[in-house]
Design brief:
The structure is a homodimer. Chain A is mainly α. Chain A has two domains: 82 residues, Arc Repressor Mutant, subunit A (Orthogonal Bundle), CATH 1.10.10; 69 residues, no CATH class. In chain A, strands 1-2 form a two-stranded antiparallel sheet. In chain A, a hairpin with a 7-residue loop joins strand 1 and strand 2. In chain A, helix 6 runs antiparallel to helix 7. The longest helix of chain A has 26 residues. In chain A, 35% of the residues are buried. Chains A and B meet through helix 1, helix 4, strand 3, helix 5 and helix 6 of A and helix 1, helix 4, strand 3, helix 5 and helix 6 of B. Chain A binds a DNA duplex through helix 2 and helix 3.
Chain lengths: 167, 167
DNA sequence: CGGTAGACCGTCCACTCTGGACGGTCAAGT
DNA sequence: ACTTGACCGTCCAGAGTGGACGGTCTACCG
């Protein structure tokens, strides 16, 4: 079985949570790693199933009502995750920004900028609120990632503000 | 027919080039919009076909040898592209960075940082070389997008350098 | 002048991801 | 008893992905 980034996200979240249902994973991803790597909710149901089949997670299922599946990481899963963490990252990062794409093809910067400024202001405020509330108690990894998010939002803000101001 | 970002990328490139074969689109995308939005080469063959069927491009085909298809934009295509350019961007931008993902899940920053620094240095050098060579003659859109790429590479560099220096 | 290496170019396919529709379950409050 | 809204899981058509594969053309070599 081929492990994708999403596989490792799931392994990482399950390891951190101890045990988790897909819905719990959704909640956990939403405000943390979801800002970093989009995970479709449908994947949170299909992917753990595959990981369980591969022996990296154990699956336990309610046999009535919502028939929730609860996952826990196995030693094999822990090993795979650690191996991935120690290997050099494969591939380059990519940025996909619909606003920037329009700008590339000639959209009017002055028309685009205000909305983009607002969007990034909101995002930045959200990140900084998280940092203020949990920064001190967060594990190092998530905190560093959050810091990366913050500095990038600052960069975006400066960029779009300059475009809003010009002309 | 539903138009995706890739559709507009193709329309935009064809409009700019005047006429283009899929292979020409590949070359055109590689060093410009490809840095902004990844386009799979296979899409450059399938997508124009759909756009031609929808009346947004005309298709002309060699009937011997490589059987290249040459595309040109139609008025309908131009209209669709302009409408898209004037509409507010839908959806938020997203960043996907394998290195940052590993950092999030606890990879050692000091081990990750040097390679990331080098990667972003290379990318930055490439962008700046492009800017130095063509900056003065580039259309505004691509130049602004390139500037965005440059400031972000600076942000990444500062970020990873700090992590390389710490501890 | 035939041959061939390497660039140039197009097609295909299995697989994954995406986005959203749809529908069911449960707790709390009329 | 009934409704409302949060909670939760499944499905599916369409889009994107990554790479294999194979054919065409040019330039240069023997």
């Amino acid at each position: 079985m081929r492990l994708t980034p999403v596989s490792y996200i799931i392994l990482g979240l399950v390891r951190h949570l101890g045990e988790a249902t897909p819905y719990a994973l959704k909640a956990a991803a939403a405000e943390s790693v979801g800002n970093l790597w989009t995970v479709q909710h449908a994947q949170l149901y299909t992917e753990p199933e595959k990981l369980a089949a591969a022996g990296m997670l154990t699956e336990e299922r309610e046999d009535a009502g919502r028939r929730r599946r609860t996952y826990r990481i196995t030693d094999a899963g822990r090993e795979a995750l650690d191996a991935w963490l120690h290997a050099p990252p494969e591939g380059t990062g990519e940025t996909r920004d619909p606003g920037l794409l329009k700008l590339f093809f000639g959209a009017d910067p002055a028309q685009l900028a205000p909305a983009e400024v607002e969007r990034h202001e909101r995002k930045l405020a959200q990140y900084e609120a998280t940092m203020a509330a949990f920064g001190a108690t967060m594990p190092q990894g998530p905190r560093l990632a959050l810091e990366a998010g913050i500095v990038h939002q600052h960069t975006w803000l400066a960029y779009w503000r300059a475009l809003a101001g010009a002309r």
